[in-house]
Amino acid sequence: MKKTALFAIICGTLSIVSCNKPEDNKKPVGPIEIEKEYTELYALGGAVNKWDSMDPAPMTNVGKNLFTIEVDLIKSNENKLIKFCTTAGKPWNETDFLVPATVETDMQYCYLREGENKIQHTSEKADGVGNIKDWFFGLEAGTSGHYRLTVNPYELTVVAEKLSDLEDKAEAVWKEGWVYMVGDATPAGWDINSPTEMTKDGDIFTYEGGLAPGEVKFPVEFRWNGPTYIAEEAGTDITAGGEFNVVLAPEGDPDNKFRVTEAGTYKLTLDTANLKLTVEVK
Question: The pTM is what?
């Protein structure tokens, strides 16, 4: 009799314990996703005349994961107007870029629309060597203007607000036998499809006007791997003026560019017969 009573008490206790812990049958709870907070964001492309992730254009942080920039967006042939990166001071293969989620057929840009646009992350670490998407936002004809862009790198959106209209860029037309200027020191920036045209007088080509701090070289055609007049040594500084030797690189290689360290008004005279560049500082 005592054994029977003891057995009944034990069974009852086990039953109570089992009923009081229904959570024992639940599946384990997975890790809780915590929203990443970005504290900096930068812009690259023709609109900000910044192409190097080591020195991108800073954007303004206006809230949690919200960054803005006001910028002139003007349609060009190349149409690589703007993209974004999450760090400054890092080489491109160590940088996380924010680019359009899709691009136009056979192009490296997506048309920016007023309102919300979708973006995606791309980096060598995430996508593999050689697989970074070098994509930009561009514009359709007739939509150039001064825009405010608000980027959320966590939700992967760009909201575009057009503040005023601007005229589309008058594109350069290639002429055989002419020499052009390209580089972030020049008015054309790095737009190889619409470089700054020099004035031609036989074998002498001149440019007189403003130059910004940056680099410059002298292509003959509207392509990167075409004939280009370059410096003998990369980074040759022409800020103080003087006469410099130039080299004609038939396929644009090596990529030895001249450098300007101070903004100002310059006169550049390129003698293609004698391979000399004369620089005067105004």
Answer: 0.66
